[in-house]
Amino acid sequence: MSHEIEIVNGVAQMAYAGEVPWHGLGKQVPSDLTPNQMMKAAGLDWTVSKEDMFINGPEGPEKVEEKQALVRSWDRKQLDVVGKGWEPVQNETAFEFFYDYCMNGNMDMHTAGSLKGGQIVWALAKVKDGFTLFNGDEVESYLLFTNPHRFGQSIDVRFTPIRTVCKNTLALALRKSENYVKLNHKKVFNAEEVKETLGIAHVRLTEYKEIAEFLGSKSYKKDLVQEYFGHLFPAMSSKGKEESRNAKRAFELLEEQPGAQYAEGSWWQAFNAVTYMTDHELGRNADTRLQSAWFGANKGLKIKALEKAVEYAEAA
After folding, report:
1. What values do phi and psi take at 245, rounded to 5?
2. What is residue 3's predicted lDDT score, i.e. its pLDDT?
3. Helix, strand, or coil here: 296?
4. In 3-state terms, what secondary structure has residue 299?
5. Distance between alpha carbon 299 and the CA centroid of its chain, in Å?
6. What is the separation of C-alpha 104 from the centre of its chain, rounded to a whole number of angstroms?
7. How far apart are CA 228 and CA 271, in angstroms?
8. pTM for this prediction
9. From CA 133, how far away is CA 139, in angstroms rounded?
10. How far is the first Cα of the chain from the last one, in angstroms, to the nearest whole number?
11. What are the φ and ψ backbone dihedral angles of 125, each rounded to 5 degrees?
């Protein structure tokens, strides 16, 4: 399996300020960098351009109508094929907006990097607004900003709570339409529109805290928590009743995961066994887990895990 984090000359295209991030990748930088300095430290100081495409015709090269190649400046790599009405957002513009948002939203720039060979440029900001549950279980809030250089995908800003004790990224969607905003690339990037649409970070964090407190107040029964893991990690066997290896591992993590002592025996503990698996055990390495946790299959799995945990807790 190829790495998801872009590697150039043996160096991961990622930089972070402060403590080592949960994925353990990248190089450390000072916390007072400007957007331009952070962008350069992460190897993202490049531009993209739309260029005409040609095919070999019977009488020579023929221009492809309505489509253009999206090309990266420094290595002439084609990132994608896009429509002529699609407007790319340059990394410099994206980082200026991101920094401005941080300054106006009581946040610090924390991590930046690229995935999928430069197709996904992202940055993470730490929100100065977290909470503590169950006498020591700390949850911090982050803002995840994504600038995709891929046709059909939009700029994406969303909030991501991270559990400190185990560095699990928790569910990215409390309500799927309310904790993130997407901008269409067919129009010029408008930072003010994003700010107005997104709203205030701590409102979403408060909602998440209420869910976490509820899950922590409800105890699971062994047969039901095994059923819960079975829903999330179904067996591939035709017999249908055999427990999958991942479901068995999730059950083991109830006691083995970091932070197992917080709200022990509750649906909060069960939910975090799933998030620990997705972020630290599923997949071959840290970079593929990072990609999947934020943008791939494991993102959806954690959303489902949270929804199912609430269902079981409500019935408890």
Report:
1. -65, -40
2. 47
3. coil
4. helix
5. 7
6. 22
7. 9
8. 0.78
9. 8
10. 41
11. -120, 140
- Here the tokens at position 192 are 């003010």
- pLDDT for 191: 62
The whole-angstrom separation of Cα 195 and Cα 277 is 33
Query: Which tokens hold the place of 284?
Result: 């071959």
- Residue pair 41/15 in contact (Cβ under 8 Å)? The answer is yes
pLDDT of residue 173: 41
pLDDT for the residue numbered 197: 46
Long-range pairs for 68-73 at CB < 8 Å and ≥24 separation? Answer: 70/149, 70/151, 72/46, 72/47, 72/48, 72/118, 72/149, 73/46, 73/47, 73/48, 73/49
Distance from chain centroid for Cα 260: 24
What's the CA gap between 84 and 202, in Å, rounded? 39
Which two structure tokens, joined as six digits, stand for 277? Answer: 């698996």
Tokens of 231: 């829903």
Residue ranges of the chain with pLDDT lower than 70? 1-5, 10, 22-23, 105-106, 170-202, 237-242, 286-287
Walk across the sheet containing 60-72 and list its strands: 48-57, 60-72, 78-83
DSSP string over 57-98: ETTEEEEEEEEEEEEETTT--EEEEEETT--PPPHHHHHHHH
Q: Is 301 helix (H, G, I), strand (E, B) or coil?
A: helix
Only one residue has tokens 């700010």, namely 195
pLDDT of residue 292: 79
Tell me the C-alpha distance between 57 and 34, whole Å: 49
